[in-house]
Specification:
The structure is a homodimer of 737-residue chains. Chain A is mainly α. Chain A has 3 domains: 138 residues; 449 residues, no CATH class; 43 residues, no CATH class. In chain A, the strands form 2 sheets. Chain A has a 4-stranded antiparallel sheet, sandwiched between helices. In chain A, strands 5-6 form a two-stranded antiparallel ribbon. Chains A, B: It comes from Penicillium canariense. Chains A, B: Keywords: Membrane, Transmembrane, Transmembrane helix. Chains A, B: InterPro entries: Anoctamin (IPR007632), Anoctamin_N_fung (IPR049456), Anoctamin_TM (IPR049452).
Chain lengths: 737, 737
């Protein structure tokens, strides 16, 4: 049953479920017409009603609405599938009485009606692929009123309630719901380290052992908590085990078709071993990424040190920006190159399901991100600080570059007077955890918003000008002019304008936002002992992040098609991994930098001993693993509420079924006599017994003779009692003694 | 459909399914009689036929056989439960046509008929517990003929075939089947390191890097292989997910009864947090075990070194055995004490299910075993060898003990002449991997067998003597004498004698055998670089082990009640853990002992540097983890054959169901007209269109007006085509250019 707000939303969007953009810019008109006809026919056959309006110069907007009966049937089918895969416990009620529970379910099912192959009951439209490559967009419309209301509400409270998260899920589907839940849990969990970190910073400054231990522990607890929470959410949102229903990638290229022995169907296969061989390319890719990015970062780093701490020639105030500019220019370029290689590699690995594809891509993305995000700090902490005095002399090569331009005596400070900047590490951490977060927020939310508005303005201006030009020059072709100014009915004008704006927006993917959060978590796990205010900064940042991400989804992206999921997927592993690496780096940081006594004459920690450092790392890491195991064990014992509920439901369902089975048996039993009954008549028993024995002795089968000796349990009891009484009664004897 | 051999076996055992021993030695005769009656009535009501025979002086043997109809119904019920829990894919056929597939299933179901509570359709007999504490044994009878045949067959081949393993499973159930499969897989996997280890030993001697690397890799592959194999086997034997059907422990003591919100039933609960608090006791327990056993082992070790390498007084040849005797006496005693503490602790932790109980107990057992098995070698390698020269002077305390007995000059060799025995480590490894295995085999198989025979002889002798005595002294009580000599029918004499022997045997538990194998695997993972012949020794040992274990089950234990399982359980984690620890110890061993150049003047490795050792360990461990991750990933991609089959079946089942749903819809559709049809008459369409538009403009609902503009997909197509043709045809234009 559609809720009030839902009905409202649908009304607001003129009950449009999905909008399809049909682009005909690059094909022949007659072909475009035929294809359009095919599209409409397919949709109609799948039970979808259409309306067509003009898009822009080279596209049509096809508005799609599902007819109630067909929608209900599709919902039924989807639920039957869920039930068969064990996602739902109870067999669904019949199709006639079924309705989508949430807007997200409605939209998801309609999206299936559009995209599933015809043999599975859909229309078989695959946007941007193969024969449907003219279908360039498929998306539902934003419910702007609700979005605005929520943004307003949330801006006035600190935490989203479970109810708010349910609302998000009902509107945008489980995938987005999981992201916001994660963000919310993470945000809520940050309170503790924010407060604790602030206290530690106030009392001990950086590198305090107690902060490091607590921080590591917090990381473990958070990751494990989130694992449980995921299960809980997936029970609450009824998506537990949804990854079992895997959708095949349409881009999958089978190597050969074989007849499946089990199912007897032809299906395309791609040998796992061959894929594995291709996956081996990941190793050179990882190495190449590490070297490529590493060289850029290390070089810029070296230049920076050279200019900041050795160079004393002219223009130093300006030159100091060179490395920053270089990094800002080169690293994103290199990342983009690597990303495109990663995508190609991933395509080449030819995964069969979207999940596998996403998982593999995430891994590659993570490698790139790990290097770009953490390598600079790692270089400072574990190369620059301990080995600076060994490396700095080699920076002479830069002096050679500089020499042509400046006189020799100006060129550089003397190497021997070189001083390690002891605050460099902290400054860098602050840069990455505060400045970079703010810059990121601006780049991700504000800039696209401004750009998009500017673009619309520009387009409108352009169109106006063109319209004017055409009106002036082309008066004799009156059928063309309405195309440009849009001949919309008055009452639809506002609506169509909105749709035309939305159709221009990019598609939203939740991965990007998850990635950002995981990388942020990494700073916390890996480097926060350097500056214990990191969690506080993130706490503030994430309050904004949650709202701005929602704003972004509502304003800067097409409304995403609801997807189901029961986990944040590979990012969960990433969190675990980062927290593990954190146990190594933070132990090393604390050992190396804790206490000022260790600092030597030129700012270098003198007292670091290799074996002690390694021992600290060894203990820290293994302690981490043991504690993690303990926390994991403890967590599995505590059953989240929704899991318990789900289990109870399942149990009840089973119990009912079993009871009915036993009941049926009991009824059956009443009608019939049983072999082992008390019926054998008391009176003639001894006679019968004798008979039986007599018979049995002549029977051929020794087993039958054995089993005929005693008839019915009463007789056995008699025999047993006889034997018992024949014994010297030790029990009673003892008692009497 | 019982197979031929099965029918044979049942015939051989006179078609007896289970034997119950009812002991009445320590209760009053009338009470015993009442209780026996109750037992027999319960059995009869559950559909089981009974025969009673004399056991020994204070027990009865109740032979139990299931009636066919009731058995089939119980099988049906068990399969329905499996189906509901997702263990079986297909809903079972009706009860009337169902029969147990294997002897193990038959026995398992009958055991359920006997032990399940009455409300679940069983007889509610709980051996040794509560009101049934007089039921002191419940077991099926051995099928000696088949056992003998198999032992004979297997003694003539190297590897058991899959078919042999299936046979074991059919006879003894999945639990025993899993153990033998594991043993067989392990044995087969040992070929490679046996050959490779032999070659390395021949070519490089001990501590070769290449052997260590290959060995670690092998450990990873074996553990991961077995994980896959388990899944494969559980599909083959249809027990996948069987652990979901957890049986409640009857010993579980709930803290309070609460009404379950979901199911509305009263159930006993024990708060997880409280259990966790109790589990914290494991920490002092582990410490206590480590210290208790550690002190014993270390002390004996120190005494041994003192006597062997420092002492040169009289009686040295005899005194040298003191530490060995001490270890042999004290360690098992201490272990037994610790085991009883562990069991008490485990009982105290009050687990709700048997699985959880076993898991927790296994963990504790593993701690004790880890210390007793590996600590002596670890002490030699990482304490004695590197630190001997520091520790040996402290052995002076022993000199004080010795002094009263011997003259001073004899007492000890001078400390300065003390020489570390460089072969000590190797000797110790050889002892644990060869000698101890042989001793273990003897203790576990041969000794109990002899003991059991001796006991029978003794009993028979005793009985004969008593019989004689009674005959002589007690002539006037003729009903007593047959009790002692057993008044069995002639044709049953042989059979009953066999049953009376079996009833005396202990119960078999598979855990003990699995433990032994896991500990053995540990030697391989942890210490085999010291002496690369270890895998060869184990290979030979395990050929015998498999046969002797089977012999043991057949001859020295009651036939186990078939249990289902889908894994070797917690021991799997143990294997993974040992292989991980192996990556640390073997790297350390190789670094410390590889190359003789490192040995100093008194046999001590001089060149060991703390940081280098730690670095080697760090790299080795992390390399291990990375490789393990890679192997795991690769393994998950390769689907075992039975898993594929199972998936195909499940898929087919789902497909059939979904197809029937879609078919039903399609049929329905044929009857009715659809909203979106092509029917709108071609002729009057434009008129209708106009009408509709006209109407819709006056309609109150803007959404309805929107959706009424185009009627049916054909009209939409027309409108679309109009718009397309109205555009300057860029596509065609481009092509023409």
């Amino acid at each position: 049953m559609a809720t009030a707000s839902e009905a409202n939303a649908l009304g607001y969007n003129l009950k449009v479920d999905y909008v399809i953009r049909y682009s005909f810019g690059d094909v022949d008109q007659s072909q475009a017409t035929t294809q359009l006809e095919k599209l409409l026919r397919s949709l109609a056959e799948a039970g979808l009603q259409c309306e067509i309006r003009q898009g822009d110069e080279s596209s049509l907007l096809v508005f799609v609405r599902a007819t109630k009966k067909r929608l209900n049937r599709a919902v039924y089918r989807s639920r039957v599938r869920d039930w068969l895969y064990g996602i739902r416990n109870a067999e669904p009620e019949p199709a006639s009485s079924i309705t989508p529970q949430t807007e997200a379910e409605r939209l998801r099912v309609i999206s299936q009606m559009i995209t599933l192959p015809t043999e599975e009951g859909g229309a078989g439209i695959t946007p941007k692929l193969g024969e449907w490559k003219n279908v360039t967009a498929l998306f539902p419309l934003h419910d702007e009123e609700t979005n605005k209301k929520w943004l307003h509400e949330w801006s006035q409270k600190t935490f989203l309630s479970d109810d708010d998260l349910d609302q998000i899920r009902n509107k945008f589907g489980e995938s987005v719901g999981f992201y916001f839940s994660f963000l919310q849990s993470y945000f809520r969990f940050l309170i503790f380290p924010a407060v604790f970190g602030f206290s530690c910073w106030f009392l001990f400054g950086g590198y305090s052992i107690i902060y490091t231990v607590v921080n590591s522990l917090w990381c473990i607890v958070f990751v494990e908590y989130w694992k449980r929470k995921e299960v809980d959410l997936s029970c609450r949102w009824q998506t537990k085990g949804v990854s079992a229903v895997q959708t095949k990638r349409r881009e999958f290229k089978p190597e050969k078709e074989i007849r499946d022995e089990g199912t007897g169907e032809m299906r395309g296969v791609f040998p796992a071993t061959k894929r594995m061989q291709r996956q081996l390319l990941q190793i050179p890719f990882a190495l190449f990424s590490a070297i490529g990015l590493g060289v850029i970062i290390a070089t810029c780093f070296a230049i920076e040190i050279f200019i900041a701490e050795l160079y004393s020639g002219p223009l130093k105030t300006y030159l100091i920006f060179i490395p920053t500019i270089l990094v800002s220019a080169l690293v994103p370029t290199m990342s983009a190159v690597l990303m495109s290689i990663a995508t190609k590699l991933n395509d080449y690995e030819n995964y069969e399901t979207s999940d596998a594809y996403d998982f593999a891509l995430t891994q590659k993305v993570f490698i790139i991100n790990f290097i770009t995000s953490y390598l600079p700090i790692l270089l400072t902490a574990f190369v620059y600080v301990p080995f600076a005095s060994l490396i700095v002399p080699y920076l002479d090569i830069f002096r050679l570059t500089v020499r042509p331009f400046v006189s020799k005596e100006h060129a550089t400070a003397n190497c021997s007077t070189f001083q390690i900047d002891p605050h460099r590490l902290r400054k860098q951490v602050i840069y990455f955890t505060v400045t970079a977060q703010i810059v990121g927020f601006a780049m991700e939310t504000i800039v696209p918003y401004l750009k998009q508005h500017a673009l619309r303005e520009y387009k409108a201006y352009n169109k106006k000008r063109n319209g004017k030009l055409e009106k002036n020059g082309d008066k004799d072709s009156p059928e063309r002019s309405p195309v440009v100014t849009y001949d919309d009915p008055d009452e639809e004008k506002e609506f169509l304008k909105r749709v035309r704006n939305e159709v221009e927006l990019p598609e939203y993917g939740v991965t990007e936002d998850l990635r950002e959060m995981c990388i942020q978590f990494g700073y916390l796990a890996l480097f926060s002992p350097t500056w214990p205010l990191v969690p506080l900064s993130f706490f503030i940042n994430n309050w904004i992040e949650l709202r701005s991400d929602f704003f972004k989804i509502c304003k800067e992206f097409q409304r995403p098609t609801p997807l189901r999921c029961d986990t944040i997927g590979p990012w969960l592993d990433t969190l675990g991994f980062l927290s593990w690496v954190g146990s190594i780096t933070s132990a090393a940081l604390v050992y190396m930098f804790n206490g000022d006594a260790r600092t030597g004459p030129n700012g270098e920690p003198t007292d670091i001993r290799g074996w002690a450092l390694l021992l600290v790392i060894f203990f820290s890491e293994h302690l981490y693993l043991i504690v993690r195991y303990a926390v994991q064990t403890a967590m599995t014992r505590l059953e989240p509420p929704n899991v318990r509920k789900e289990r109870a439901e399942r149990y009840l369902m089973r119990k009912r079924y079993l009871e009915s089975t036993i009941q049926a048996e009991a009824n059956e039993e009443l009608d019939k006599d049983d072999l082992v009954s008390e019926v054998p008549p008391e009176l003639t028993r001894s006679a019968l017994e004798e008979d039986a024995r007599h018979n049995s002795e002549h029977s051929a089968d020794p087993a039958e003779r054995f089993w005929m000796r005693q008839r019915g349990w009463t007789e056995s009891a008699k025999v047993g009692a006889g034997i018992i009484q024949a014994q010297p009664s030790t029990g009673t004897a003892k008692k009497q003694q």
